[in-house]
């Protein structure tokens, strides 16, 4: 897996902490030179912390303090010591042989994968004192190996908190900012044919787990909170908040919370561990997930999902093979599951409980409550799980389902080898004490009139000795709230993020400090300019600072090698970056960019002239941003051997993986880019060359580019919230097989300085695949006037040509009005049938446009240089003959519909009903008439 630059994040942490204390903020990023040394220095006296911790940790050189405490860094494997005990008194920890104690006198930071003990050797006991805070950077997680133990026992008033660096010092915490906590044991797991010789590799890092000791102990967790974890390695490898791999019943787990994790909250792979008093909030995928033979128990579990941000409350598996032993068969009692509305960004509906893959379970006092837009609340899937219900291995009693869609039945699916069906509602209602109806809750607590208070299973301790008696349905008895004082995010205790950027004292690793001339830059706060150039073959993080600019100089900054020497360029929210006249950024195949800004702190990429005092900005003053992927492009006959040269710099792109990720662009503004090499080679603001759908692109702007705003060469990347303003050639250009999606696109032109809003191509060779076939919804284009720009191109709306297919919905093209070319837009919708495959796509229904409005003096044009296809398409008839289209005048203010404009508002098609990528809308154009999604982050020239 990729290890990201933790150093940069650590520096930011200190700054943000100090910002909260007022005054100037100073970060030591480890590059300072004191200019000399003192002759014959007096040896310093060791502090209690140095005496206690220097044997297994190092004092941070980049974080001065957090919460007023020193920061000490854990890295690599924690092993036994043969030296004398260094454990201090009071809150100071230390090490004594195999016992390592993390004291609460300091704040701890994880650097990469920190592993307690070796696998079944060099074992340690890792004790974490109450009140300790542990910070993780974007590649960090903590593993407790087999035969080692963790003793993390906080208290209600002083819980132990594992969190991200950002959240730990008051910045906005977000899912996926670090890894999580992993416990690995010697208990049975059904992926081992021989439990006496069992070594299962954990899904991240290949740490081993599994064995034949059901009562194995991995230690204890009590009053432990894990926040903002779950970094993603790829589409199948992500970190859970707390992972239990083959963990035995000798382990104690109670009063734990996982909050805002980017994958599952907790997950169990086999084992027998029991958990109780568990809070799982706002986790992205499944809140509680088990597989591979978990036979533990869980009681008093509160699950609260995030609207439009979570999947299942419980996802329960055993094994795809019915013969795998042991079968998953935990005992569950007193759950409250609040099912969210909507679906998460992965396209998964929010749902309640899914039993599948042959799992068993004995469940009691379960309360599942869904909203109006929740998915199914109880589902059973596949033949092996139906058999578990018939054998009595899967049961549910004394439970309450309160959902609009309470049940989903098991259906036969011969293609997947499933022939059995099950009426889930009948199965549920046929067992003792089960209810369907209103839960009658006040928040998550039952009201005095709720049936949940009296409908629970009595004498649970007699049913299973791991349970305590709790004869009510759900996690709460209506009186005692056991979540108080130690949890986060459910009691109105969220800390507002610190919005001030820090002051940096030196440039981050991977950049070079340049001399700053006083008065040179428009921003008088600038004291640091950090330069980058050449080939970047290791991970670099650009830190945000109110006094720093980043400079791209000396040609392209190339991130990583082509499908080798992969690297990540991480750019923090609020970074300002400029490029010189011959520079651009190219992200190679196999590498990625993580440019994640916010609405309050967008990332700005601009020209040198835009930051220098007295200089004048114009198009083409630097290159722009190029993402190169391994996706499909019809420029390659064989996608398994594909190396297309990008039009500037000959950087290769293309391959066979349309789902690949090149990283993330969020809240990124690119200005004054697009230098010209020659008449056929020019840079776009952002170029997507065979970029895959695993790349996240949202809230981006390209302003005043010297060529196209954005261009796509094949691939399947998807985009949301795109603002393209005053670009010279085509604002949005696709070719060579782009099959992605886009929603909320706003395009504006400068009169006499632009060509088309959209120019759409596919291929010139007959039968080339893939065919360009994107889907766009909610697009507004305000094209410029019908006056030639410097290249001889006039202001126009949309041109569909060169064999493209595609689907355009909810599009508004509103041209300039007037009596002459200097006052009106050129054609607003044109189809060019020079290549006959475009005509074929029209006739075959592969090129469509619905629920759209053309408001132009010259609405339509058909052009063709091919006599065989000339006038083969009447564009006006094609447009008007499709659903919801009108060529009519509408009222807008800078593209935003005026109040009561019913030709736009309420006239659109809801694309979310047919494709989960799209958000639900009912209007035509990029705006709903109320909200301008550009506010706060986009550059709008005055």
Compile the SSE list and pairings.
Blueprint: H1 6-20, H2 48-53, E1 58-59, E2 71-78, E3 94-96, E4 99-102, E5 107-116, E6 125-128, E7 133-136, E8 141-144, E9 149-153, E10 160-164, H3 165-168, E11 181-184, E12 200-201, E13 208-209, E14 219-227, E15 242-245, E16 252-259, E17 266-269, E18 274-281, E19 288-291, E20 297-304, E21 312-316, E22 331-338, E23 351-355, E24 361-369, E25 378-380, H4 383-390, E26 394-397, E27 400-402, E28 407-408, H5 424-429, E29 435-436, E30 441-442, E31 445-446, H6 460-463, E32 512-514, E33 528-536, E34 540-542, E35 548-559, E36 568-571, E37 576-579, E38 584-587, E39 592-596, E40 603-607, E41 625-628, E42 644-645, E43 652-653, E44 663-671, E45 686-689, E46 696-703, E47 710-713, E48 718-725, E49 732-735, E50 741-748, E51 756-760, E52 775-782, E53 796-800, E54 806-814, E55 829-832, H7 836-843, E56 847-850, E57 853-855, E58 860-863, H8 875-880, E59 886-887, E60 892-893, E61 896-897
Parallel strand pairs: 2-5, 4-6, 5-7, 5-8, 6-9, 7-10, 8-11, 9-14, 10-14, 11-15, 14-16, 15-17, 16-18, 17-19, 18-20, 19-21, 20-22, 21-23, 22-24, 23-25, 24-26, 24-27, 25-28, 27-29, 33-35, 34-36, 35-37, 35-38, 36-39, 37-40, 38-41, 39-44, 40-44, 41-45, 44-46, 45-47, 46-48, 47-49, 48-50, 49-51, ...
Antiparallel strand pairs: 1-2, 3-4, 12-13, 30-31, 32-33, 42-43, 60-61
Describe the structure.
The protein has about 950 residues and is mainly beta. The chain is about 5% helix and about 30% strand. The strands form six sheets. It has a 27-stranded mixed β-sheet that branches. It has a 26-stranded mixed β-sheet that branches. The relative contact order is 0.05.
